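Table S2 (text version). Query chain:
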Amino acid sequence: MAIAVLAAAGCGGARGSTIGGAGERVLVVFAAASLREPVEAATAAYEARNRGLAIRVAYASSTALRVQIEEGAPADLFLSADVANPARLEAAGLTAAPPLPFAGNRLAIVVPAGRELVRTTRDLAAEGVAVIAAGEGVPITGYAEQLVGRLGALPGYPTDFAARYAANVVSREDDGAAVVAKIGFGEGDAAIAYATDAARTPGVETIELPADVEVVATYAAVVIEGSRGAAEGRAFLEWLAGPAGMVVFDAAGFTAPP
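Corresponding structure-token output:
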């Protein structure tokens, strides 16, 4: 089931919670917004295999979730859309083990279905194009910057491609899923997003990326040190990173971690 971040923070008086209604064990998971589809499928499958366990999931930007954990939110397991946010928790002594990569994701250029203002990646820097992006520090923002840098180095692209692209950004959203949703509503001309978000969002199309510029996102997870559900979180993470979990991620369009 899905719960709000602040609601998750209210489960129990310490980090995480292992006792729910009628004696059920509860595992509190904080997960990147782009993971909603596979994590919902994974929690259903895992709960079916582990009777008496309830997995409660809060979805948001990885950066927002990491900050919540730093402020004491009682998560047991953190599934991030990058390695950097889990690594920051590790550096702060808040993790039981180093970050474990468990999935990968490709990037896509998304445009509103039926529109022709942006036909190639070069058009991302064209005058008058309204680009939707995520906020500073959000993982998709970092991946998008990598892709823009590689595009700008291609022959035939303007030397100030990155600056032109940045000047075209008209909106900064909370996470990658919100970025794609805004394109689907026709509120922008283009965005760089996760391929999985693009595939499941109505009202959008993708344009082809040039060869040799692909950026692959690495998703990594950590069990939170001292959480009441650390043992359950470790077991669930091992399942997610194993063959059974990869079947779920593959079905949702994700890849093995790079």
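Notes on Table S2: Confidence is low (pLDDT under 50) at residues 1-14. Residues 36 and 50 are 21 Å apart (CA to CA).
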